[in-house]
Amino acid sequence: MDESRRDFLKSGSIVAAAAAIPSSLHALGVQGRILGANDRVRVGIVGLRGRGENHIRGYGALPNVEIAALCDIDDSVMSERLAQVRKMGFQPKTYTDIRKLLDDKSIDAVSIATPHHWHALIAIWAMQAGKDVYVEKPCSHNLWEGKQLIRATEKYNRIVQHGTQSRSMPAMIDAMHKMQQDAVLGDIYLSRGLCFKWRDTIGHTPVSPVPPGVDYNMWTGPAPLQPFTKNHFHYNWHWFWDYGNGDLGNQGIHQLDIARWGLGPGFGFPNRISAVGGHVMFDDDQQTPNVLNCAFEYDRPAGKRVILEFEVRHWITNHEAGIGVARAASAASAETAQGGLGPKEGSYNSVGNIFYGPKGYLAIDNASGYKTYLGREQQPGPSAPLDKECHFANFIACVISRKKEDLNASIEEGHLTSGLAHLANASYRLGRTLNFDPETQMVKSDNEANLLLRDGDRGYRAPFVVPEHV
């Protein structure tokens, strides 16, 4: 980014942000409705495709929630989800522009399932409108946005849940208890996360007309307005830096969060970050790496270090520590009938975590649960099967009680985990190790890295600007 553009972005962002804020937000200190124990929380869901449908099903199953509003930029997606929600007995208002939804003072909470580049801006706008927020992972598109989210949460005193729903799974909570309170592994020295997902090439897609019923300007929002192609739109946006964060910030963010959580209290930002990898094998439009090896180093007292490793693979792989074996076995007959290898990524996944200590190791399979193996002979130890999570219920309970401390995945924890993904991606893109100051949340003596972690080489497109002063 040249100096003139950088200066323009910094000087103009406050004005542009003010222009973007919905009309009802200009009065500071906006507060939401005061809810009683018998009130139904009125939720607006924004971003209805993919994960947004999970939000609909999650809230729709709760007795103390009304799905009061839906927002999406694609009419075909809206029509399908509206019919689904009406069958549940709700009659929501519908919006294309999130700013109009936020002007509705009857909405108590906003649940965000948009592409990543919209997460922080909608969350900040919603807090300024006096609404509580459930924001999908990662909560930010870059490190600086995460810091802005924390500031907004503190200023507007809102309940904000991060969409790392593993923190609301009893089996995961039990695994953390076994490692931290019971110390079944001893002091953990290595935490490893796996994101091995079979993903085929996305190919090349040419510039084409915007599909009927799609507001592509609103979809693009804060990002540069690119000519429309199918690869820059539904789902494949994950593989472009303007919108997504690769699989590290997509599937991987869940395992990255578990990897950090398992180390115990006090493990937030690391001191050194190094990531190497590449976009291998395919000639296609994808920008983000499909092979990535990340290392996060934490300095501890007495010169000790704790290491967090993370690995992304997008093709043929072995299973590790038994993770993925049960899934592969259960799908084997179906795959054989359909010819074996192909783009059916789920059957070939190894997605989970491994924690190593002097007494043994603990393996978490995101599809089946956790197991421990103790001693030289790796004798079976404590284990538990995967069970249902209650993340939306936890959020709604906190909206009613106003007890932030009861959130299973606070925005503070979400910022730390999302920040790990941003730091690793920055290390990969710059081709060097980052020496990080966890207190200032800045890379030491590396202005280029700090700029990349601020807004990349992308900037923000007015009027969709994350404000300097929330």
From TrEMBL:
InterPro entries: Gfo/Idh/MocA-like_OxRdtase_N (IPR000683), Gfo/Idh/MocA_oxidrdct_glycsds (IPR050463), Gfo/Idh/MocA_OxRdtase_bact_C (IPR043906), NAD(P)-bd_dom_sf (IPR036291), TAT_signal (IPR006311). Residues 190-273, 387-458 form the Gfo/Idh/MocA-like oxidoreductase bacterial type C-terminal domain. GO terms for molecular function: nucleotide binding. PROSITE patterns: TAT. SUPFAM superfamilies: Glyceraldehyde-3-phosphate dehydrogenase-like, C-terminal domain, NAD(P)-binding Rossmann-fold domains. It comes from the Bacteria. Residues 41-163 form the Gfo/Idh/MocA-like oxidoreductase N-terminal domain. It holds the Pfam family GFO_IDH_MocA. PANTHER family: BCDNA.GH03377 (PTHR43818), OXIDOREDUCTASE FAMILY PROTEIN (PTHR43818:SF5). This is Oxidoreductase family protein. The lineage of its organism: Bacteria, Pseudomonadati, Acidobacteriota, Terriglobia, Terriglobales.
